[in-house]
Amino acid sequence: MKRIPVWIDCDPGVDDAAALVLADRLPELELLGISTVAGNAPLPLTTENALKICDLMGKDYPIFPGADKPLLRPYEYGESFHGADGLGGAKLPDPSGKAQAVPAWDAIYEAAKTCVGKLELITLGPLTNIAIALAKHPDLPDYLYRITLMGGSATRGNCTPAAEFNIHADPEAAQIVFRCPVPKVMCGLEVTEQAFLTRDELDGLGRIDRPMCRFFYEATPDLWRKNTAVGQGGWCVHDACPVLYAARPEVFSGREAGVFVETQSELTFGKTVTDLCSDKKFGEKNTLVVLDLDRPAFRDALLGAIKRA
Ligand code: RIB
Ligand code: CA
Q1: Which CATH superfamily is domain 4-308 in?
Q2: How far, in Å, from the CA of 282 to the mean position of ligand 2?
Q3: 191-203 pLDDT per residue, tens
Q4: What is the chain's Cα-based Rg?
């Protein structure tokens, strides 16, 4: 099987951690590198968490730190959701490795050139690094196969009533990405809130005496409580969706649409405005908006990866 070369830009984050484990374990994917951005936690912490997760996987993927704040707006700490350490309070040993000195935006560009147009860029946090890469390297779109992102929503928000966290964190960066000519897939809240693990499924991990299973059992109770308190079916593993989409798009369904980002309104900045349900359409369909998934197939792929790790 010809493996798909992927790069993951992330802000670990417990669901980012699940996405990294999934990318590492799916036979369809070849994870070439990881870049980090401020989001769920400040940049030093998201970078340290990525290093710790690689240790937990027994892998030494190169990790390239990127932006420690959004393009224009102040950085707002996502502490409220993933905890002060960004990993839900689950303890991992200090990292054995160190991050690379090359910044994320240059590393992404070099990897894309090396893959000569085949690299799938998967983003799991605010889009600041991607926006900087596009600004600094205007020919980057020539070398990217696709950008598959976790972010946004056609109908709702989880950060404000209008906006999802990753887009809200840096709407100007997100607008640059949605306007760039690279084909895009948006895994927004419509599909990622269906991508949950139930209490029983998480308790099943707690009964397996392996470090990876124990980590996700210990890192998720607060997230499970917060998600179910607002009516979701369990712990929403948002960031695993774009990774599984890259490997197995048949598990998902969606529709092409025009998608652009509100950056001006104080009430709705960070909203991904889509023309999915409008008779008035944007001039282009620039994004495939993923709307549904086969949860049993999602669950089996994710739990299988965690249990094999
Ligand atoms: O809204 C969910 C997104 O925000 C996920 O990427 C999660 O990790 C947080 O970053
Ligand atoms: Ca994330």
Answers
A1: Ribonucleoside hydrolase-like (3.90.245.10)
A2: 28
A3: 999 999 999 999 9
A4: 18
